[in-house]
Batch of 4 targets.
Target 1
Amino acid sequence: MKRVIVPLAGVLLAGALIAVPAGVYASPARENSKTITVGATPVPHVELLNLIAGDLSKEGYTLKVVEYNDYVQPNSALLSGDLTANFFQHLPYLESNAEWKASLSAAIAVHVEPFGLYSNKVKTVADLPGGATIAIPNDPTNGGRALLLLQSNGIITLKPGAGLEATPLDIAENPKNLRFRELEAAQLPRALGDVDAAAINGNYALQAGLNPIRDSLIIEGADSPYVNYVVVKKGTENDPPIQALSRALRSAKVKEYILSHYEGGVVAAF
């Protein structure tokens, strides 16, 4: 599911954005090179893009933002030429698919969204009962990320060699006999009422009104390798529109917004 946010030339102020139904935008290949079309998930990605629309306008670019609520369509749309770039993913996720890894490039490092374990039923991980059900993302890298978070906090032990794409089958020790439910990442906040705890990506936690620092039972440390990137087609990394997008997103203005707006739930990577 996606929503397209585009400026109406001659009606809105420069850099202003308005939502219109999906499917009405032209692909970047058919548009003027001064238009930058970026696919993104809502929080914080769309919010950060909206913040810089005026800055790009001053450089002569029109920003169009296409909003997605899943982790697959944005890469498909980028590969098909419907987008100039997308902004939603970390490098391990990008490299989990051979076609994405071969054709797409992580061009602009922007921020980290600390990944956490949340619960509506217990206050600490020590309170998790035996046989508790834990929901984790069903995509390989984020599912593995959840299990590594549990291992780093002494809750489970993974088999030697289990890496970023570990699955519940790679669990060697499970003292609490935890059970795992694998769900689409976007569904995890809604599943909190049905499970004992859920490991949730930072963007979906924020979108659901959860603050990773304040509300999580456990959270990734500052050394997290899961930086969120603006991703483009290989060979376009140094194109002027991408460089303009990089300057705008990695600015002091954006860093200050991240610091003041997300209360530690998003951490700048620049």
Target 2
Amino acid sequence: MKVLVTGGAGYLGSITAKALEQAGHTPVILDSLLVGPRQYAEGRIFYEGDIADRALLRRIVEENPEIEATIHMAARIVVPESVELPYEYYRDNVAKSLELFDELQQLGKPRILFSSTASLYALTPEFAVRETDPVDPSSPYARTKRMMEMCLEDIAQATSLRAIILRYFNPIGADPDLETGYHLKDATHVVPLLAQAALGYRDSFTITGTDLPTRDGTGLRDYIHAWDLAKAHVRAVERFDAVIEAEGAPYAYLNIGGGDGVTVKELIAAVERVVGKPVPVTEAPSRPGDAVGAYANADKAAALLDWRTEASLDEAIASALAWGEKRKSVLGYE
């Protein structure tokens, strides 16, 4: 099948496109290249443009009538930036997504797979969260994702649109062939920052927040190999109608995570274990909008998608480090 992938020239979008190809499907990429590198779309059906450009969406569907679903991954995703630039985040993540959803529904392409985030869950004493647990998004970024979840619920109730909402935990690593990976010049995600410190590209790694209510005072996350995450999208696209039918509603929520909680200090120890040398660190206060953390109960994804993570934390870290060493040759910068 053909699958429209918005943000398909981004980090996770490009890896998901590759997973679709390996499963025998054809990704159709729509990306503004606001942050995604052009080379991540090379060799694929690619349209450069905005997700809210209805004329472009109509042309994409006219030229690719076999599109059976849309994976909507295009979004601004940097939490501290969302605190500084809330208008841009609400405009791009919410307002433009509404235009996309409405146009796709009118074009008879109602299957939407939406990239959401686990950072909107409310803090729980156990840290493990299910899809039905309370939400309390702590940043403009997380609130844009929650808003779009609610929009999808309402639109699906009123129209033919159907939505599977994937709440991502923390993807790390690159595609298996190290052709694409994390690409932002100024890394904001923890593992690329750790990789740069471990490889000597930056002086040290900064632990932001050391007095949080976790077992060692640092933030807790559920890390998942980006390739495992990509394969979850493939399963969700292939089983889309069955998932919606099983849910008994026009939308469904699925946690996509590994099911383990790892603190920042534990992650640093894992990186040191993989690299075989210490990572220089400094400590700083938490950043505005940072969540304390959670990890996934992913039983629902296992049941409905027959999907589970396969890569270990060390394998995911090794992938991220290998990409950190290669990405200059791919992108032209470290």
Target 3
Amino acid sequence: MLDGIVFEKVGIPAASIVTDVFEGTGRAMAVAWGVPNYKFLALPHPIANLTDAQLEQRAREIAPEIVKLLLQGQE
């Protein structure tokens, strides 16, 4: 999350991704770093126990949202 915020602050498009249980933490971090409207994506938690095939499926599902976030940038 912090990497994405820092990249965006210097003009490098980034797409931060967290699992849904960390959405609140992500929002708090964005506020703490001065970008309360920072946009990021959330995947269902947990991911640690998923197989490679399941992780690949999740990545395919969220890929369009990643592209959208990168192209629109942080406003």
Target 4
Amino acid sequence: MNWGKGIIAAYAFFVVFILTMVFWAMRQDVSLVEKDYYQEEIRYQDQIERIRNANKEENRLEWKYDADSRQLTLKYAKKHHTQGLSGELKLFRPDNAKADILFVMDGSSAEQVLELKKLKAGLWKIKAKWKSNDEEYYKEGSLFL
């Protein structure tokens, strides 16, 4: 093999490699965490206030996951379940937006149990947003099933 054939082979390999990478990159799912991320960014100061409200001791929302029964238990602060609470808890997969699931938060009692048996194992992000007595709250965390 002479130099000319080696250079042509290297160039051909490089072109095939680049085309393969372009084809592979175009097939990747690039779903966003939020569809209206720009509007969410503008309203972020409101989000900071919600987080600050939720971090106060009297407003705490706690969750506990039981791996054996695959249940998530939400424990509401006494202030919330006695004054009424409305909100939603969103579980979402960072790698697959189609797997997201939304639960309605019911503050009629001190605890709420959510069944997670149908959810795929792996990392889930938890986003809880609720309202009680005209104040809004927000808390997020991670859960590994």
